[in-house]
Amino acid sequence: MANHDDSGKKSSENEVPTFNAENLQSNMKVVYYSRTFMSIIGGVIAGILGFTGLMGFVVYLLVMAITSVCLTARAGFSIHSYFDSWNRVLLDGFLGGLLSFVLFWTFAYDIVHIF
C-alpha cells in the first residue's frame, strides 16, 4: 500500500495531513479488489458447504469482517497513514462484493448440490 505524502516539513499538531491522490486511489483499488476476491471465495465456500437463506448472508458478513481486519493489519493498524478515514477500509466496496458473493454462492450451490 502506498503511504501518504510527506513533504519533509515538520508538522504541528493543528496541521491537517495531506494525501497524495494517486496513492489514495491506489490504496482504494487494493480495498476493492480484496473485497471482490474475498466475496468470490466466500461465495464459493458458502455454496459448497450448502448454506442457504440467512446463514449464507451471515457467512458474507463474517468474510467481510475478516477482510476488514486483514486490510487493517496489512496497513499496520495505522489507517490514517494510508486512508483519509476508517470508513474507507470498513465499508467501501461492501455492496459490490455482495453481488459477487451471491452470484458465486448460487453457482457453487447449484453445481455441488443440484447437479
Automatic annotation (TrEMBL):
- Which Pfam families does the entry link to? EMC6
**Top-level division of the source organism's lineage:** Eukaryota
Q: How does it sit in the membrane?
A: Multi-pass membrane protein
Localization (cell)? Endoplasmic reticulum membrane
Q: Which family does it belong to?
A: Belongs to the EMC6 family.
InterPro entries annotated for this entry?
Emc6, EMC6-like
User: What is the predominant subcellular site recorded for this chain?
Assistant: endoplasmic reticulum
Q: Transmembrane stretches, by residue range?
A: 32-51, 57-77, 89-109
Q: Organism classification, top ranks?
A: Eukaryota, Viridiplantae, Streptophyta, Embryophyta, Tracheophyta
Q: Which organism was this protein described from?
A: Deinandra increscens subsp. villosa
Stated name of the protein: ER membrane protein complex subunit 6
Gene Ontology biological process terms from the UniProt entry: autophagosome assembly; protein folding in endoplasmic reticulum
Keywords (A to Z) from UniProt? Endoplasmic reticulum, Membrane, Transmembrane, Transmembrane helix
Write down any Gene Ontology CC term: EMC complex
